[in-house]
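Worked example 2:
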Amino acid sequence: MGHHRILGKTIDFIMGQEITDTDDERIRQRIARFLVEELGYEKNDIEVKPTLDLVCGKEKATAMIDFIVKINGRRAMLIKYGPGSLVSRERVVLAAARVMDVEVIPFAVITNGTEAGILDVESGKVIGTGMDAIPEKSELIAMMKDRQVKKLPETRKEIERRFLFVYEAIEHSSECDDEFCITRFE
């Protein structure tokens, strides 16, 4: 994250655009193929690398999320990749799902490409572990069927944004890369 080997260029599986090829990007591309080829999502169900603007004091940061899966046009599941241990990243993926949109994205996945934790964003509880626990499209449709739209109070959203800002700043050592960038403004 931030310090990665540049291996050349590759074509993004979902977007069909040329992107920088890194070790992390290769894992993201495997995750994208898994979502489409194994779990039955259409490429147009998946938003790739949506960004989230965060402000803390006089600093602004732009954080990148790896994927957001939509069901019937509604954002249903946020997926964030991070190498290594998943437990330390659960809180971050919950914060991202809580502030990424006007309404809370109901489900979040943190994965290192081999393991995964699936979380119910409202409760914050892990509801599944392992790549095979990531819901297939038909399962996610069923999970979303009776799910009510939830919005956080603005004060709570601000807390989640600040948490996400600080975590990402530490994770990326306040540098600019493809996943995160902090800038100061007056």
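Residues 154-171 form the longest helix (18 residues). Helices lie at 23-38, 90-99, 137-145, 154-171.
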